[in-house]
Amino acid sequence: MTTRIAQEQLTYPYCHYTDGQSHRLILRTAVTEPDRRPYVWVEAENLAFGGDVVSMWLTIEHVDGLHAVLAQASTYDESVGARRQYRAVDHTGDVLVVWPGSTWTVFEVTRQANGDEESATVRVVVLTGRLPELREALAAAAEYAQRRATGDVQEPAIVHVPKPRVLTPGEHDRAWHAVEGAAGEPGADPGTILSAVLAALNIQAPSAEDEQAASAALRGRLASGTPHRGR
Fold first, then answer.
1. pTM over cut 0.70
2. DSSP symbol at 100
C-alpha cells in the first residue's frame, strides 16, 4: 500500500479548470515517499461555501488510458458513448469516472468513506473545446512526475507564489467601464472584452508570434520523454 501524500509533495506544473457551476478540476504532479512512485493528483472541488473537496491518484498507466479517451472525444459518437466511458480506481479505493460528450465531458471524482471522512462526489463539466489544453496538461504533469521520481528535477524546498499586483481605484474603474462598454457591443465575445480591458489598463497582449513560440515550446517539452508519444 502506498503511503498517503503530504500536501507539500504536490508541486507544479499544475492546471485548473472551473465550470459554470463553480466546480473546479485540478491536476498536479505527485511523488510518494519512500518508494518514489510518480502519480498525477486529480482534485475536484465544489467551490460553494462548505462544498466538498475530493481527490484521487492516477498512475502513469491510468494517465495513458485517460489521455487516449480524451484524444478521441472530438469524434464522440452518441451511439457508442456508454462504451467509451473511462473509469480508474486508485489504491485507496477512490474513483475517477469520465464521460466524453460532443459538447462537454464530465469528470466525476468520488471519495470512499473512511475513518476520517464520509463518502463524497464532485462532478466537473469541461467544455469539449477545452479538452486539448487539458490533455497537454495531463501529459505534462505525468512527464514531470516521472522526472521527479527519477531525480531529474530538483525538488524545491518552498514554492514561492508572487503576490498579485493590486489595481489602483482608477485602474479598477477603467477596467469596469471597459467591460461594460465592450459587452454591450454587437457580437461581443470574450476576446473583444479582454482586449478592451487590457487597453484600459495599458497592458500589452502577447503577439501572435509569441503565442506560437510558446505553444511550440510546450509541444517540444511534451515530445521529449513523455510517455504519450506514438499514440
1. no
2. -
